[in-house]
Structure formats: C-alpha cells, structure tokens
Amino acid sequence: MPPSLSIITFLSLLLLPSAVTATTIGVTYIPSPTLPPPEQVLANLLSKKITAVRLPVPDPNIIRAFSYTNISLFLAIPNSLIPSIAANRSAASLWLYDHVIPFYPRAHITAISVGTHVLAQGDVTSADLLVPAIRNVYRSLTDIGIRQITVSTTFSFVNIMTTPFPPSSAEFQQPANNFVIKPLLDLLSETDSSFFVSLYPYSVYKLRPEIPIGFALFQQHAYNFREDTVTGVRYRNLFDLMVDAVIAAMAVAGHENIPVVVAETGWPSYDSNGEVEAQDVYSEMYLQGLVNHVRSGKGTPLRKEGAAEIYIYEMFDTNDTATKGLNSDGAWQNWGFCYPNMSMKFEIDFSNGGSPLMELEDERVTTCLLVLVYFILVLKIRDDLILFFILQ
Ligand SMILES: *[C@@H]1O[C@H](CO)[C@@H](O)[C@H](O)[C@H]1NC(C)=O
Ligand SMILES: *[C@@H]1O[C@H](CO)[C@@H](O)[C@H](O)[C@H]1NC(C)=O
Ligand SMILES: *[C@@H]1O[C@H](CO)[C@@H](O)[C@H](O)[C@H]1NC(C)=O
Ligand SMILES: *[C@@H]1O[C@H](CO)[C@@H](O)[C@H](O)[C@H]1NC(C)=O
C-alpha cells in the first residue's frame, strides 16, 4: 500500500458521485503586431467552434474585442505584479479596473490566474506571496460583487509533481507543497475555485524513454496502456495519467474535490534542435487525439468529469519554452496549430462529436470492482474498509 494515498481515499475517488459536465476545450492566444487583428482572430475562433480562450497577456483592447461573444476568457496577471498585489489590495483593484470591470459581464471572463509558472523561475520566496496575492484579487472582486470568476495561479506539472508513476502515489514536491500548494488548496476550496496546471505529456515522454510514443499521442492499441502498479487501474494515455497524478496529490493534501483546469497542453510541431517527435504529424495526432478523448466524455479513471477545462497551447507560434520541463539549451519550439495567416497547419475538428456517457458508467463500475477484488484478494481487509463499504 502506498504511504501517500490510502485505499479508502483511492476508492472513494473512484466512487465519488459527481455531476458530469462536459469539459470545455479552449486555446491559448497571444496577440502580436505580426498577427491579424483580434476581430479577425475572433471570427476564426468562432468558425472553429472554439468556446474558450486563454489570454496570458491580457491587453484590454483584446478583452474588449471578446465582448458580446459567448467565448469565455481565462486571463493572467503577470508575475511581476505579484509582490505589489500581495502587499496592497488596491494594486489588485487597479488591475481589475483596467482588465475586468469595464468589460464584465459582456466579456465572459471566467478565470484569473494570478501569475503563471512562478515556481519555474526557481525563486521560491516569490511563491510565498502567491496566496496573499490571490486572496487580494479574490477579495477585490467580491467587494465589487463579482463572485463567478475563479481566481487561482497556474503551476507547471514538472515544477510541482514528484513523479506521475504510479499516479495513485503521486505527491506534490516539497518544499513547495507545504509553503504554497497546501495553503492555496485551502483557499481554493474556501472560494470555490479551481486548480490550474500546465501539463505536457511531451515533456514526460522526453524524460522517460521507456514510454511508447503512442501512449503519449492517444493512439488506441490493445496493448497500449500502463497499469497503476499499486491500484491496478489501467491508463490508456499519458494525459489522463498526469491529470490523475494531480488529483491523487490533491487528495493526499486533503482536497479531492477541487476542479482541475489544464491551463496549457500541446505538442510541438517544430524544434530548432531537430527533435524527431516535434513534427506537424505528431502535433496533429496529439491535438486531435486530445479533442476526441475529451469529447468522448470518458473523463479520467479517478474523475468521471475529467479536467473541467483544457486550453490547447497554442493558436499561433510564440517562443516560450522555459516552463515545459524541456532541456532548452537555447532551443525553441513551435507549438501553434495556425500559421500567422490563420490557415491551419493541419486540420483539427474541435467539434468532434462525443459518445453517450452510459458505457462509461459501466466501465467505471467494472474498474471499481476490479480494484476491490484486487484489494480483497491481496490485502487483509481492514475494519475501516469494511465500514466504508457498509456506509456506501
Ligand atoms: C450566446 O449563447 C446564448 C445561449 O446559448 C444564445 O442565445 C446567444 O445567441 C449567443 N450569443 C452569441 C453572440 O453567440
Ligand atoms: C497601494 O497601491 C496603490 C495603487 O497602486 C498606491 O496608490 C498606494 O500608494 C499603495 N499603498 C501602499 C501602502 O503601498
Ligand atoms: C523564435 O526564435 C527564433 C530564434 O530567435 C526565430 O528564428 C523564430 O523566428 C522565432 N519564432 C517566432 C514564432 O517568433
Ligand atoms: C498561409 O501560410 C502558410 C505558411 O506560410 C502557407 O503555406 C499557406 O499557403 C498560406 N495560406 C493562405 C491561404 O495564404
């Protein structure tokens, strides 16, 4: 039995009743003077039926352009503002008066990330300020009567997780866990907010040569799975395994119900060091595989509804490689799925229809039973386990 997550917690995660709502799929959009104006980009997003956009560099003019659409917006506050916002609530209000208040609710702002990948900068002291800064943004919002926007911060998977294998034993890294993640989780549950994480199967695949590429790319083959060696739960793709690692780590930290938002995920189509997997064909397989998987409504083994929202990184190529856990050596990648003229590098159908949720229900029950039988056979059933099932 793993020291980290008890059987009870694990089984209760599997059995947790929850209302299944469809996962939102959005894209990250970073405007630049070399790209078409926001109105054109917006029309293009609507034609692709993309209903959510993450704006890591939220220029007020861009936010204005999204008013009167049903596209939901995920905004980020720059890391450089964290110290002043943590120290002074009026600095939080100032930012909100520029980026939210003039546009809300016509612009459908649903999330604010206070800082992005702060731990990647290696400066753990600035992470101390994260929770106070988030609290100040949240309080400023509620002061003006806005309660529907979730306020959190975005971590990078590689900066916070010990290991995703097996996912049921995953924990948050120390010291980050004690001094920032745990206090953050307490705040998120108090404020009904979500946990934001950037998560790249590509990075884990590059670090672990034994992982078959098909497992990272959502390819369906009979033998394409990895078993959680502790629980026996089968994973058919690396993305689900990483999401469940985050969910298991949250459970260890005492919070199993906080929604997970994947703030960034994607696959590079080009790498200046000539990495062979960084190609259009793999990027297409990953993104279409992700969309199809999410639209199928299957969720992850630990969470029926899966991630609440997933933002593809990214619409147009930019040069941000720092936080993806890759050994950059001055190398840069292209992660965009559109050329600057807005034609797509490859076709992705974002509206790909899903299958009914019924079959999934059966699958989950089977998984639960298998896990149960496993524990009953292999381990002595403890009193609390029996009690747990009587209570169910
Ligand atoms: C937004 O969604 C609502 C309800 O689904 C719909 O009535 C309305 O026409 C939509 N507005 C736009 C601009 O698409
Ligand atoms: C708090 O921030 C506001 C706006 O940025 C500024 O005017 C004020 O002087 C700050 N107060 C303190 C105590 O730093
Ligand atoms: C990324 O940086 C490289 C090297 O500086 C440059 O050649 C390339 O055009 C840049 N790509 C984008 C999309 O800015
Ligand atoms: C858009 O740009 C790409 C890459 O430069 C090019 O291959 C494609 O033909 C262009 N499409 C249109 C419609 O101009």
From TrEMBL:
Show the InterPro entries listed in the entry. GH, Glyco_hydro_17, Glyco_hydro_17_plant
Q: Which GO terms describe its molecular function?
A: hydrolase activity, hydrolyzing O-glycosyl compounds
Name listed for the protein in its UniProt record: Beta-1,3-glucanase
Task: Please report which protein family the annotation says this sequence is part of.
Answer: Belongs to the glycosyl hydrolase 17 family.
Recorded hits in PANTHER family, A to Z, give:
GLUCAN ENDO-1,3-BETA-GLUCOSIDASE BG1-RELATED-RELATED
* Cleavable signal peptide: 1-22
Biological processes per GO annotation: carbohydrate metabolic process
UniProt superkingdom? Eukaryota
| Keyword terms, alphabetized | Glycosidase, Hydrolase, Signal
